[in-house]
Every structure is written in C-alpha cells, then in structure tokens.
C-alpha cells in the first residue's frame, strides 16, 4: 500500500498530472482560443522522448501516446498565418511519428511555404512518418528546394515510402562540403538519407569514400565526428557487401 512519500505514488501522481495537462492542451487546440504555441509545445514534449522528473526519485515519465484527436488538433495549426505557430504544430506532429499519417496531406502542403523553417519542419514530419504515395508529388518537388536539408529529408521520405524516383543523384549533387563551418549533425542528415536508400545507395560509394578520408583528419577529432565516421564506415561496409552479394 502506498504511503506518504512513496516513490511509486509520487510517480503515478506526476504521470496522471502530465496526462491531464496534455488533455487540456488538446482541448485548447481544438477550440478557437488565441496563442496556441505553448499548447503545441506541450504536445511535442508529451509525444517526444521520456522526461526525467527529479521529484519522482530518478524515475522517467514515459511519453504520452498520440491520439487521433490530438494529432488532428495539432494539424489544424499547420496552415496558420504565423510561421512560429506552424513550426510548433509541425514539431508536435514530428514527435507523433507514424500516428501523424492521417494528416500528412496537410503537412505536404506546407512544403510550398515561403518560410524556410516551415518547409524544413514539414519535411521532417514526412521523413519520420513514412508518407503514403499521395504525398509523393509534393516530395518530388521538394527535391529541388533551395535548402539542402529539405532535399535530404525529401529523399528520406520518398525512400521510406517505396517511391521509384531516382534519388541517389539528388544526394550526390547535394553532398555537404566538409569545410571549417560544417557541424557534424548536418553531415548526419545527409547520411540518414543515404541509409534510407538501401541498396540503391551503392551509387554513392565514391562520395562516401571521399567523406571517409575527409573525416579522418586531426581537425575532426571530437566525439560527434567519431560517430559520423563510424556511420560512414558502416555504410561503406554494407554497400560493398551488397555489391559482392547482389
């Protein structure tokens, strides 16, 4: 039986409070109240990674499972006039993952936004949610977006949906240059798109080998670059094995 100060009791109370907070956010988003950003952020936090709560004696609060109502409530704000609200709505849908599939048509429409941050956020949602063939035309148009990162995410989304559009040339043409200003996480975005191609990424072996040489220098010695090199090495091994065993 739980008693005062029981860690399990504190954990369950905090979890119930979090779930009630999310229900309140969904209720607010389903109405016509102004300033929805903080409610969309609440959804993104709830649908995202587990949260460590210090008052629960080191316990992690599990993410809340996205509901159909919550997803549709967030999707209402994807077409808002304020790009910050749009980005917040798309961030929540990105955290919803595959549960966002029923509203991906609305998300795909945001790929034509004049706001780069909105296009990027929409592309992230589509890459994470494995889009349907209905979103393929919008994603193919995004392959020529001004932002390389949008192109990479569009490649990832199309590859995950099984689209037959030639995608390796898009990645070859937009491979990041490893200059002094490139952060490792930007290279990782390109590498995720390469990995999504599966066997079709064999056409990118020359680019991967060149990147492997460039990331092995002393200027790329921190942990993040070590992880990028490890990813490149793994991709090269897998693609070479595929070539030997077609």
Describe this structure in words.
- The protein is mostly helical.
- The chain folds into 2 domains: about 65-165, Leucine-rich Repeat Variant (Alpha Horseshoe); about 165-245, no CATH class.
- About 60% of the residues lie in helices and about 0% in strands.
- The chain is built from 12 helices and 2 strands, in the order H-H-E-E-H-H-H-H-H-H-H-H-H-H.
- A two-stranded antiparallel ribbon has the order 1-2.
- Helix 1 crosses helix 3.
- It starts with 6 loop residues before the first helix and ends with a helix.
Please give a handful of descriptors for the protein shown:
246 residues; mainly alpha; Leucine-rich Repeat Variant; 2 domains; two-stranded antiparallel ribbon; 12 helices; 2 strands; elongated
Give the SSE layout.
Elements: H1 7-30, H2 37-47, E1 51-52, E2 60-61, H3 68-75, H4 83-96, H5 104-109, H6 116-129, H7 136-142, H8 148-160, H9 168-173, H10 184-196, H11 205-214, H12 223-244
Structural class: mainly alpha
Number of domain units:
2
Helicity, in percent? 55-70%
Instruction: Please give the oligomerization state of what you see.
Output: single chain
- Integer average pLDDT: 82
| Biggest beta-sheet profile | 2 strands, antiparallel
Order of helices and strands: HHEEHHHHHHHHHH
Helical stretch tally: 12
Stretches with pLDDT under 50, minimum 5 residues: 52-58
InterPro entries: ARM-like, ARM-type_fold, PBS_lyase_HEAT
Protein name: PBS lyase
Pfam families: HEAT_2 (PF13646)
């Amino acid at each position: 039986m739980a008693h005062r100060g029981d860690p399990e009791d504190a954990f369950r109370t905090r979890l119930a409070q979090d779930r009630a907070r999310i229900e309140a956010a969904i209720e607010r988003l389903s109405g016509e109240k102004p300033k929805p950003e903080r409610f969309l952020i609440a959804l993104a936090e709830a649908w995202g990674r587990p949260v460590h709560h210090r008052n629960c004696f080191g316990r992690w609060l599990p993410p809340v499972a996205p509901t159909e109502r919550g997803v549709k409530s967030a999707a209402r704000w994807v077409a808002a006039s304020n790009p910050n609200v749009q980005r917040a709505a798309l961030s929540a849908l990105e955290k919803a993952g595959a549960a966002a599939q029923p509203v991906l048509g609305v998300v795909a429409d945001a790929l034509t936004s004049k706001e780069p941050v909105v296009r990027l956020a929409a592309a992230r949602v589509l890459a994470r949610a494995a889009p349907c063939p209905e979103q393929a035309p919008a994603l193919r148009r995004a392959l020529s977006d001004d932002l390389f990162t949008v192109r990479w995410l569009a490649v990832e989304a199309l590859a995950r949906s099984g689209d037959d559009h030639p995608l390796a040339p898009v990645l070859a043409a937009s491979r990041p240059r490893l200059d002094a200003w490139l952060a490792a996480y930007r290279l990782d975005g390109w590498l995720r798109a390469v990995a999504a191609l599966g066997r079709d990424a064999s056409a990118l072996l020359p680019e991967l080998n060149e990147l492997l040489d460039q990331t092995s220098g002393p200027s790329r010695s921190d942990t993040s670059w070590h992880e990028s090199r490890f990813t490149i090495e793994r991709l090269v091994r897998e693609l070479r094995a595929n070539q030997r065993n077609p």
